[in-house]
C-alpha cells in the first residue's frame, strides 16, 4: 500500500519527552483504530483513548525493550513498537468488551510528523480480527478486512478524544469460521469514513459523530452447496451515511442512489433514490453512563444502547423512523405457493414513517403510484394512485405511559406497545386509520364453478376512508367518486355509479345505559350497460333507470359488563348485546321505475312497540316486469312475487299523492298491524 505524507510539520521546539509521550500515544491509538477498519470495530476507536498519559509513556518504554504487555481501559496490547523508527510489528490488540482480538503484522508511519494536528499512516494489506467469548477464548470465527491503497489519518487532541479518517480504493469484509468461509463478504469501492469521539467520564457524556461514503457496496452471501441455487447478492451505489450520538440525540441517516438484488434466478428487486433515517430524542437528555460503563463490565455496546433508547422512550422521549424510495420494483417467480407463478410490485415515491412520542404513536405509508400483480391459478391486479394511509393513536387525559417498554426483550416490544395503547384508549384516548387515494383499480380472474363470471374488474376515482377507535365506539366513514365494476364470463357487463358514501358507528363502551349504533349508506346514479341488461332483462320489460339508494338507520344497544375483556360474558342468561330502540330516519330505493321510502321508529325489547311508515310508487309495474325476466320462470321467485303482490293489495291504502300506496306498520307487543289490519290472522276483507 502507498504511504501518505502529512502536511503538518513536527514541532521541534516541544520538549523531547513530551514529543515522545505524545508520539507513543498516537501510535497506540493508531493501532486501536486499525481494529475498526470498515466499520466493524467502531467501539474500539473509543475505547483506545481511555488512558492516563504517564501510563502510556511507561508502557511504550517497556514495549521498546522487548514487547512487554500492557492493559489500559478496555484495551490489552502486546507487541514490539519502535516509535523512533516509525514501525510497529506483531502487535496484538484485544478488546474484552467486544470480544475481538487482532494481530497486525506491521504498521508504518513517519515519526517526524507525529507531533501535529494530523498523523497519516498506511494500513496492512489484510487485518484479521478474531472473535472470542467473554473469557477471551477464541470461538473459531474471524473477520478478515482487506483492501487496496488504504490510508488512515488521526487527529489526537487530548485524553478521551479521537478523530480519524480512513480512505480506501477498495475494501473487503469477510467472515470465516474454523478457516472456512462462513458469512460471505462485503465489498466497498471508494470508501471514505470519518469519525470524532469525545468521552467525559466524570460528566457521563459522549459526543460522537461519524460519516461514510462509498461509490458502491456489494454484499455477497456465503456460497451454497454444489448444485444448489445461487444465493442473491445485494449491491448499492452512491452511498452516503452519517450518525451522531450525544446527550441530546441518537440518530443516523443513510442514502443510496440505487440498489438491486443480483444472482437471484427467481426474484429481482431494484430501487432508485433510497433514503432512510432513525432518531431517538430524549425528553431531557440521555443517561449515557451505562454506555461508558460498558468498558468495565464487558457487556455489548449495542445491547446497552438499545436499553438506553428504550428507557428514554419510557421517560417521554421521541422515536422517529422514516424511509423513502423514489422507485421500487419487485419481481418473483416460482413462489412457495404452487398455485402462484409470479408476483410483481411497483411503487413510485414510496414513503414510510413510524413515530413514538408521549402525544402520538403513528405509522404512515404513501405512494404516488403502487401496483400489485399476482399471476397463477387465479390472478389479481391492483393499481392505486396517490395512496396516503396512516394509523395513529392519541392518549387520553394523560400522556402515554411507555414505562413498560423499558424492561421488555426485543420480540415482546410490539405486544407491549399494543398493551400500552389499548390501556390508554380505555382511559379516553383514541386510534384512527385514514386511507386516501386519488384513483384505484383492480382486476381478478376467478375459477369458481358457483360464480356466474370468470373475471371481475373495478375502479374508483378519489376516495377517503377513516376508521376511528376510542373508548366509546368504532367509527367508519368512507366516500368516493366514479365507481365502475366490470364482469366477464357467462355473465358479462359493466356497472357504473357516480358517488357512494358510508358511515358506520359501533359502540364498544361497557355501560348500563343504552348507546347508539349508526348505519348510513348512499349510492347515486347507477348505470348498467346494455350487455348486462341483455342477460337480466332480454325483453326490456323493466325500466332501466337507477337513481340511487339511501339508508339512514340508528339503533340503541346496551353492552354487558365485561363484553370486551371477559369471554364468559357470552355465557350469561341474557344476550351480551341487547338491542333497544330502532330508528329508521330514511330508507329509500329509487330504481327500475319503483320508489320505496320507509321512516319510523320502534322498540325491540321487552316487546316490540312503535310504527314504521312505508310509501310505495310503481310497485305494480315493477312486479309485472320482473315476471317477464328470466328470473320470472323460477318457481320460488314466482311464489315470492305473488306473495308480495297479494300483501300490498290486501293491506295497502292510497297515499298522499297519486299512484302512491301507504303501508303503516305498527308493533303492539306480540301483535302487528298494517293500516290497522292485523297480520297473521284471517285475510282481511277487501
Biggest beta sheet attributes? 33 strands, antiparallel
Using the alpha-carbon principal axes, give the shape: elongated
Mean pLDDT: 77
Quantity of strands, as a count = 33
How far from one another are the termini?
A: 112 Å
Q: How much helicity do the residues have? A: 10-25%
Backbone structural class: alpha+beta
Radius of gyration: 38 Å
Describe the structure.
The N terminus is likely disordered. Helix 1 crosses helix 3. This protein starts with 15 loop residues before the first helix and ends in an 8-residue tail after the last strand. It is an alpha+beta fold and 686 residues long. It is built from nine helices and 33 strands.
